[in-house]
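fyi for ur records
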Amino acid sequence: MSQFKPIKSLKEIPVKEQFAPGHRLCAGCTIPQVVRLALKAVPDPKIVVNATGCLEVATTIFPYTSWKIPWVHNAFENAAATAGGIEAAFRILEKKRGIKKPKIIVFGGDGGTFDIGLQALSGALERGHDLIYICYDNEAYMNTGIQRSSATPKGAATTTSPAGRVIPGKQERKKDLIGIAIAHGVSYAATMNPAYPTDMYNKLLKAASKKGPVVLHYFSVCPTGWRSDPSQSIEIARLAVQTRIFPLYEYEDGKYKINILVKKPKPIEDYFKLQGRFRHLLEPKNKWLLEEIKKDVEENWQRLLKLAEIST
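which gave:
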């Protein structure tokens, strides 16, 4: 377990790379940012467990790999179970043979975390395995055809929740992954965003310093599924925070902290208009749904303020 020492500048981040360039992730995809920083923040020895998804498919096309550390691939649904087994095995090896136990980092998409892998994640959290679970959330099953997941936000158009004349996109709210993790009794959980790399790196450092399970929810822009300009991915990510759609906050030992306190939010329309999956919400006929989404966003923000004991 490492000691948490936050950085103040990106210049303090190590130069050494353990995630090789030349992978096949799409232009504008923000998954590589969290992988690179996670491998820099978590000290060696470490092992990565990777659920099936965009990250796995694009970084291990035989006979090539982008991983310079031990890496394990498993099915969509059992990344946390595999990680728990590896962690338990090394715990015994450390006890019996003095082999230093590595830190286990799990990467899973929203499909493999919010949906298919939730049971395995719940089990790993309940058993208290010493691991860092990072969900890179691009808000749909992007690897298999842009189908909706329970992480897909209300109103978004996907191939299985198309925006039509009767139903304008997905009608259900996004699942609260961090809330679910906290309900399992984890000591640390947080949200992260590529537009705020210093905040992200410090959360990864803090996660590495913890003993027991940690859950990190990473906002990952997908130009392919979101129908957005690849050059605008960081702008879109920043707007997600500045509109309060994706608040940056953390939970540590029973206390909540909002990391980016957005006092004057930008219009949600600024975020929606940059993505084809949301453009139908800007049409007059769908104003009712847009207003409903705005209400949901405000309710969630007020909930976080109350949890963080911030008065307005």
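Residues 287-307 form the longest helix (21 residues). thats all i got for now
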